[in-house]
UniProtKB/TrEMBL annotation:
InterPro entries assigned: DUF3455 (IPR021851)
Signal among keywords: yes
Taxonomic lineage of the native organism: Eukaryota, Fungi, Dikarya, Basidiomycota, Agaricomycotina
Sequence intervals crossing the membrane: none
Protein known as: Malate dehydrogenase
Length: 226
């Protein structure tokens, strides 16, 4: 059952959001927001500066079946990004991705991830995460796009395209939960680094049959933007 405390915290945080032309949360002090990385790895490195934003991603990881290996290959992701920058000092911050996934996995097919906000009483939709043709000219690259909704709507510079820099298996249940990532800026002004951590679900089945249709697997995660 969804904790009343979490609804109250979300509602309070939503009142703190206001517009700002700067690419940082204008109201929330994110200096204490903790990027909690495993100590037994060095592929992901915590920045020395405070994050500009902490977001909750709610969406799907997309896969296609490789006819040669009969395994699923990633073809990107699509997620709604909710601003949780104001929640880092609250008890719910540590497990918000798990609660969000419970809501998301229970929603009937056809309902968009954006509907999670109203279901949870969450802070405003800050933007979207999806994939675009890579600026390198090869393949696709992930983008965090704040240009069309939220406090930076209409600002054409409010995006960042990332390139994977570090990758570790999820510290718990890596067969089910997608990897934790560090990405660096490839293009855009929104952030210089992006981290995906605290992932819930998103991994595909271990095998597929030749000719299988593409699949979408629901997931949630925290995205820290620096």
């Amino acid at each position: 059952m969804f904790p009343l405390q979490l609804l109250t915290v979300f509602a309070s945080a939503a009142l703190l959001v206001s517009a700002s032309p700067a690419f940082k949360d204008p109201c929330c002090d994110t200096s204490a927001a903790k990027l909690d990385l495993p100590s037994n790895q060095n592929a992901l490195v915590t920045p020395t500066t405070a994050p500009l934003f902490v977001t909750l991603g709610v969406g799907v990881q997309n896969y296609t079946c490789n006819a040669s290996t009969l395994t699923y290959t990633s073809i990107g992701a699509v997620a709604a990004l909710f601003d949780i920058s104001c929640l880092d000092k609250t008890p719910v911050f540590a497990y918000i991705q798990t609660v969000a996934f419970e809501f998301w996995s229970a929603l009937p097919a056809g309902l968009a991830a954006t509907s999670i906000g109203s279901k949870m009483g969450a802070p405003g939709l800050l933007g979207f995460h999806y994939f675009v043709p890579s600026p390198t000219g090869t393949g696709i690259s992930p983008i965090w796009d704040f240009t069309s909704t939220g406090k930076f709507a209409g600002n054409s510079s409010a995006f960042v395209i990332g390139s994977k820099f570090g990758d570790i298996a999820a510290p718990t249940d890596s067969a089910k939960n997608v990897d934790w990532l560090e990405l660096k800026n490839l293009q855009g002004s929104l952030a210089s680094k992006i981290f995906r951590i605290d992932t819930v679900n998103g991994q595909p089945p271990t095998s597929c049959a030749a000719g299988s249709a593409d699949i979408s697997i629901k997931y949630t995660a925290k995205y820290f933007l620096y």
